[in-house]
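Assemble and predict.
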Amino acid sequence: SAVISQKPSRDICQRGTSLTIQCQVDSQVTMMFWYRQQPGQSLTLIATANQGSEATYESGFVIDKFPISRPNLTFSTLTVSNMSPEDSSIYLCSVEYGYTFGSGTRLTVV
Amino acid sequence: GDSVTQMEGPVTLSEEAFLTINCTYTATGYPSLFWYVQYPGEGLQLLLKATKADDKGSNKGFEATYRKETTSFHLEKGSVQVSDSAVYFCALSEGYSSASKIIFGSGTRLSIRP
């Protein structure tokens, strides 16, 4: 299975600012996925990121709020923009077929 | 659309008790099924999986059997330990024919008393 490195592992941010989360995979993959886990909740898919094309967002998530980059087959970033306390969550990335997840980024917005 | 329904928590058991966490699914195709575990303050770990009907996934003493006739994938362990205290998520993926995104159940918090 792919090994996924995610950073930062946690951050505390001021409202109105943005945070970029990085996800690095140890092998080339076509698809990467970004999930959000709000406090005490399950995981919800934010978007699917294919290399060389625009990310596909799930209902309730928009590109202006969660822009995603996918510059190559081993790397992706998710930006949480103009943050509010409601964005406090754990954000996780995953890859196709491997069914493994990064260790997550625990974001607190104050 | 596809969905996963799992047992409401929290579940509290004594050490060495038998564990069952129920999970049922709704899917139009032939999904792969998973159990993930999230220990306190940690990320998500794949506990076990099954990719076709009648497959049994197992790991760390946990087992689950893919039952297509009852659309279920219940998690069991014969003798739980305090270290099993965590949140458990049942999930499905539509498999190789689609984007392989994972759909999660709501999670079941398990607490084991010494």
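The mean pLDDT of chain B is 92.
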